[in-house]
C-alpha cells in the first residue's frame, strides 16, 4: 500500500534482515547445532543487547513479581525483611479486586480518566503533528531553531511550576484577571470551574508538551524523500496536494505507532497536575485513576489495593494495545510489532 | 496481508479472554466473595496503664528561673537573655562512630547540606560525631515517609510528626519492624544517664509508647493549640478597621478589607478556626447520655460551614487559596495580599522576626478568640508531642547509647551554651547580640539553620525574648494563658489509637465533599447527604472503635 512511507520503510528492512537467516528452514534441521552457529555468528549483537536486557530484567521484570501483593492483605512490616513480608502477608484471593470494583469512587475515577484520554486524543494528539509540519515548512533555520527551543522548554518544567504559571496568568488574582478588573470587566473564572476543567488540563498539557511531542514527527518528516516533492511539484501538485499525498502518508506509520502507544496508556493521564488542582475544582472533576490510588491505597497503606488497581490498568492497557494493533494490521499498517 | 490473520485471531481470543476476566471480576463480586477476604486493619488501642510502666523517671533540669512560669502545657517564658551561660554537658557525646544520618521536616527553603554548611560543622565539632541531616519539605513529608517505611529503608534517626503517624495505617507494625525498642535504655531510673531526656515532660513520653514498649523520644509541644487565626494588625490599624469580635463583624471586616483591584483579599484558609469560634469539637465529644458525637453531628459545624461558604461565595478569599493546593499563604500574608489566615502558632516568631527587618511596622497577631451566640469557643489542641524521633533497629547497644547521648545534647536546656549553639548557631556568624544580650539571627543564620538538631532532640520548650521580636514572649504566653481554659479536653490522652482501615479510607473522600460545599460546588444542605454517606461507609465503625477504646479505659 502507499502507506508504507519512507520513514516506516527505512526501519522495517533492518528488522526483517535479521529474521530470514534465523528462520531459514534448511538450517533448522538440527536445532542444537544451529543454536551454536547462531551464537558464534551473533554474539557481538547479544553482547550489545545484554546490558539493556539486564536493566529490563532488574528494573521491570523483577519488580513485576511484586504484583502478587494484589492478592494479599500486604503488610510490609511482617517478617524480618522485605522478602519475608511477601511470604508472610495473608493471601486474600480476589479481595482487593472485589473492594476495588465495588467502590463507586473507583468507577468515577475510571470514567474521568477515560473522558480525559478521549478528549486529549482529539484535541491534543494532532497538535504536535501540525506543529511539526509547520516548523518543517519554515525556510529559515534560525527562526525554526528559535521556535523549537521556545516550545520545547516547558516540557522540562515540573507540574507545580506549570500550574503556578497558569494560576499567575489566568487565576483570579492573576495577570489576566487584574487587567480585566482595571478595564472594568468581570474576570473570567478559568482555574476553578469544574465544567471546563478538562479544557484547562488539556491546555496545560499542550503548553507543556507540544514541542516535545513534535520532535519525533520532525524526525519522521526529515526522513521523507525530497525527490518525491520535486517530482510531485514537477507534475503540477500544489502545496496542499503534496501535504496530503506525500507528507501525511510519510508520517502515517509514526502516527499510528504513537496512537497505539497512547491507547495503551489510556488509563494514565498524569498525577501531579490533578492532585495540585483537586481542591480548585473538586474531586468529581479532578479524580483520575492515579489520584484515586494515591488517596485510597497509598496514603492509607493499602498496598494490595493499589497493586490491584495497577494490574487493572495494565490489563486494560494490554487489551487496548492488542486491539489497536490488530486494527492497524487490518488497515495495512505495521503497528507496534508485526507478525508477518 | 494474509500472513497477519492467524496472529489477529490470537489477538481476538486473548482480548475476549481478558474481557471475560474483567467482566467476571466486575459483576461477580458475590461469587468471588467465596474465595476472597477483605483487606485492611480493624484497629487497636493500647491501654493507658500498660504505658505508665515503661516511662522514664521525670527529673527536671532547669538552669534558670523563668520570668513567666508556664502552667501545665504552657511553656516557661524568659524576658531577658542570660549574660552568663552554663555548660550543660561536660562529656563529648560522640565516640567517633560513623556519621549519623537523620531525617526531619522543615518548612522553608532547604538549608545547605553537610560540607557546605558552617552551622552543621560547628555543632558536629562539639558533638564529636558527624550528624548528616536530610531535611524534607514538611508539607509533603508523608510522601517520603510512606515510601521509606514501605521499603524499610530508614535513617539512623528519623523524626516523624504526630499528624503523619495518624495517617499511616500500619504504623505500629512499622515501629516494631524498623525501630529500636528504647525501653531498656530509658525506662525508670535508667533515663538518669541522659539527664536532659529525663527532663522531658511525662505527658509527652506517654505518647511515645507502642505496644507497651517505649519506641521514641518525644518533642514536646511548646503550646498545645493546633492553630491560631493570624491577622495583620498593622494593616488593620492603618486602614482604621477594628478587630472583629463576632462572626458578623468578621464578615463585615472581610467585605471592607477585600479590594481585588489592589490585589488584596481579606482571607486565606480559615475554616478550621471558624469551626473553633463556632464551638465545634475537632473530632468527637461525649454525648450527655453516653456515647460519642462526631463533629458533623454538631449543629455548630453546620453553622461554621455555612459561614465559611459565604466567605467563599462572596469572593472574600484569595483566589490562589481557591485555585491551587500549592498556594503560598505565608507569602501572601507577609506581602499583605491577605490579611487573615490560619496557621500553627509555631509560625509566629520566625515570620515576625524575618519580616520586621524589611517592614518595621509589621505586626502579626492571633485574632482574639470569640464565641458565637453566647456559647464559648472550643479550641482544638492536645499535649501530644509535635514530633517523635525513632532510632533505627539493630544498630547495637553501643551505637544506640551514642545516638541517645547525641539526642541528650540536642535537648540541653535554656541557659546553656549547648542550647545557644543549637538554637542560634555561632556568635558573629549566625547571630549577633542585641543591646540586652539576646541573639538576633543573621542572614547566614537564617539560611543555614533548619532545626536540624532541634527537631530530633526533644528539648524542654521555653519561650525566649529575642532582639528582633521584643513583644513576642509576652504576646505568646498571654494568648495561651487567656485561652487555655477554652481548650478541648483530649478524650483519648495517653491511649494509643491505631485507627481501623475503613476509617482512614473515608477521610479523604469526606474532606473532598466538605470542600465541595465550602467552595459552592454543592449546596450547604448537602451536608445531610455527606453525613449519611460518611457514617454508612466507615464512620459508624470509627465511632464504635472510639467508644470501645474509652470504655476499655474506664473513661
Strand and helix map with partners:
The complex is a heterodimer of chains A (340) and B (555).
Chain A: H1 6-22, H2 31-64, E1 72-73, H3 82-88, E2 90-91, H4 95-102, H5 104-123, H6 126-137, H7 141-152, H8 159-170, H9 175-182, H10 197-222, H11 226-234, H12 239-264, H13 272-281, H14 283-286, H15 289-298, H16 303-330
Antiparallel strand pairs in A: 1-2
Helix pairs in contact in A: 4-16, 5-15, 6-10, 7-10, 10-12, 12-16, 15-16
Chain B: H1 4-27, H2 29-33, E1 44-46, H3 48-52, E2 76-78, E3 100-106, H4 118-127, E4 131-137, H5 141-150, E5 157-161, H6 162-165, H7 171-178, H8 183-186, H9 195-198, H10 202-206, E6 209-210, E7 213-214, E8 216-219, E9 228-232, H11 233-238, H12 247-257, E10 265-267, H13 271-277, E11 284-286, E12 292-294, H14 299-313, H15 319-323, H16 329-334, E13 338-343, H17 347-356, E14 364-366, E15 387-391, H18 397-410, H19 417-424, E16 431-433, E17 439-441, H20 443-448, E18 462-464, H21 472-483, E19 496-498, H22 501-518, H23 527-552
Parallel strand pairs in B: 2-18, 3-4, 3-5, 10-13
Antiparallel strand pairs in B: 1-19, 5-15, 6-7, 8-15, 9-13, 9-14, 11-12, 16-17
Description:
The complex is a heterodimer of chains A (340) and B (555). Chain A is mostly helical. Chain A has a domain of 225 residues: MetI-like fold (Orthogonal Bundle), CATH 1.10.3720. Chain A is built from 16 helices and two strands. A five-stranded mixed beta sheet of chain B has the order 4-3-5-15-8. In chain B, strands 10-13-9-14 form a four-stranded mixed beta sheet, sandwiched between helices. In chain B, 43% of the residues are buried. Chain B is an alpha/beta fold. The longest helix of chain B is centred in the last third of the chain and has 26 residues.
